[in-house]
């Protein structure tokens, strides 16, 4: 699924693409004392002339500014393994260069923060079993897709799952998982559009810090996807001031 965040009023998204500090490191547990190079993000370090064919761990570094509110780092893909460091402390790890993942750095301290991403493109069947040396293509390493820093609003959508209940009628079930900063009871609304048309509007009572809302909607003039006619419908859900779109 393609995930997009659009029309957000409070969710601020900072694209971290660009030139990051870069260094070769001997192992996972040794942070570089200095960064003598710059590397493009997104990009593949073993595709660069100075490091062509290199298999081993590296470190990327950049600096980000926050205001102390909750934030989320979203990595579209890092190959093959990643360890995320925020102000010198590990805040997450991920294995597998084919999937998007996110980490939530600590909130509460405003100012300039050091973001270091340790990346290892070596083949490790235990840590990343999808990557093997004997495939018939070269598997590059690095922060190979964009990175973004999201400033989370007071209430946000964690995930929206679309389930097809009846493809002939265009009947869908939407499961909207939400989270928020404060756990006080509150009332809000869920608004759903399908292909730009109003599909559902209902009040939602928020209890606790996390929850799920489920609603059934109808796709107007449903068109099943086929290889001959690869049509996709667009579903958009807004909960409070945050929204999410799925094709």
Task: Produce the secondary structure layout.
Elements: E1 3-4, E2 12-15, E3 18-24, E4 37-41, E5 57-67, E6 71-75, E7 81-86, E8 89-95, E9 101-103, E10 110-120, E11 147-151, E12 155-166, E13 171-180, E14 186-194, E15 197-206, E16 210-218, E17 235-239, E18 242-246
Antiparallel strand pairs: 1-18, 2-11, 3-4, 3-5, 5-10, 6-9, 6-11, 7-8, 7-10, 12-13, 13-16, 14-15, 14-17, 17-18
Q: List how many beta strands DSSP finds.
A: 18
The shape is globular
SSE succession: EEEEEEEEEEEEEEEEEE
Structural class: mainly beta
Report helical residue fraction: under 10%
- The average pLDDT score comes to 90
Q: Stretches where pLDDT falls below 50 for ≥5 residues?
A: 1-9
| Lateral arrangement of strands in the main beta sheet | 4-3-5-10-7-8
Instruction: Give the CA-CA distance, first to last residue.
Output: 7 Å
Q: How would you sum up the major sheet?
A: 6 strands, antiparallel
Task: Using the CA coordinates, give the radius of gyration.
Answer: 21 Å
């Amino acid at each position: 699924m393609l995930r997009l965040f659009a029309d957000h009023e409070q969710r601020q998204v900072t694209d971290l693409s660009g030139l990051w500090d870069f260094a070769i490191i001997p192992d996972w547990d040794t942070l570089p004392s200095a960064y003598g190079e710059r590397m493009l993000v997104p990009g593949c370090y073993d595709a660069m002339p100075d490091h062509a064919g290199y298999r081993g761990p590296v470190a990327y570094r950049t600096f980000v500014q926050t205001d102390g509110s909750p934030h989320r780092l979203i990595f579209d893909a890092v190959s093959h393994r990643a360890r995320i460091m925020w102000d010198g402390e590990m805040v997450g790890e991920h294995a597998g260069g084919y999937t998007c993942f996110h980490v939530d750095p600590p909130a509460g301290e405003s100012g300039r923060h050091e973001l270091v991403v340790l990346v290892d493109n070596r083949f490790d069947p235990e840590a990343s079993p999808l990557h093997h040396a004997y495939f018939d293509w070269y598997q590059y390493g690095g922060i190979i897709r964009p990175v973004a820093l999201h400033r989370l609003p007071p209430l946000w959508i964690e995930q929206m799952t679309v389930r097809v209940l009846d493809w002939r009628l265009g009947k869908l079930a939407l499961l909207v998982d939400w989270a928020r900063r404060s756990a006080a009871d509150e009332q809000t609304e869920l608004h759903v559009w399908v292909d730009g048309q109003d599909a559902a509007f209902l009040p939602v009572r928020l209890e606790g810090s996390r929850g799920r809302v489920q609603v059934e909607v109808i796709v107007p003039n449903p068109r099943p996807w086929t290889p001959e006619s690869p049509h996709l419908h667009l579903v958009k859900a807004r909960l409070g001031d945050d929204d999410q779109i799925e094709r």
